[in-house]
User: Which sequence fits this backbone?
């Protein structure tokens, strides 16, 4: 990790039925805090990062995003985003939910290895919390550019270039 202004407090929750060594939630939380700090979120804000099994992320996707019930890699649920609430108390940026099992399955075709894929998903999820999106081609290119600008100095260069793919798997 590079030296970045202190980011928001990241509350972590590893809800996987079987935790594996491929996901260090404290390192991922530091990365998420650094991404949010780089996007202008102050240290007095809070967000959460959860690691879940495929069935839980599929359920969240179906419930909140009218998804098809299939597992996905990352979901972001913005709450306050970049906007500090009136009075400045209880600033909750939002929640990022990552499924390491899905990340591991897609890593070889995307960021290269599971650790790199997880880092990319955390950067991607953090950007969604503060308003970045990829609904149009222009938005997607801008978001991918910002992902690269943040990921390389904050985490390192991924084993494989995920931004050269014709379609990103991060959603």
Assistant:
């Amino acid at each position: 990790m590079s030296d970045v202004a202190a980011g928001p407090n990241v509350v972590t929750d590893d809800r996987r039925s079987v935790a594996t060594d491929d996901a260090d939630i404290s390192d991922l939380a530091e990365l998420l805090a650094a991404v949010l700090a780089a996007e202008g979120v102050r240290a007095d804000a809070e967000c959460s990062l959860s690691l879940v099994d495929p069935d839980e992320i599929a359920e969240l996707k179906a419930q909140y995003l009218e998804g098809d019930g299939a597992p996905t890699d990352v979901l972001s649920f913005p709450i306050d985003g970049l906007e500090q609430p009136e009075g400045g108390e209880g600033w909750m940026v939002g929640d990022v939910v990552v499924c390491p099992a899905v990340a591991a399955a897609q890593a070889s075709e995307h960021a290269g290895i599971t650790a790199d894929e997880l880092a990319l998903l955390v950067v991607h999820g953090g950007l969604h919390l503060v308003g970045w999106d990829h609904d149009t081609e222009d938005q997607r290119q801008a978001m991918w550019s910002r992902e690269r600008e943040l990921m390389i100095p904050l985490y390192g260069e991924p084993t494989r270039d995920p931004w050269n793919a014709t379609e990103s798997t991060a959603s």
User: Anything to note?
Assistant: The domain at 9-164 is CATH 3.40.390.30 (Collagenase (Catalytic Domain)). Confidence is low (pLDDT under 50) at residues 166-171. The CA atoms of residues 121 and 170 lie 6 Å apart.
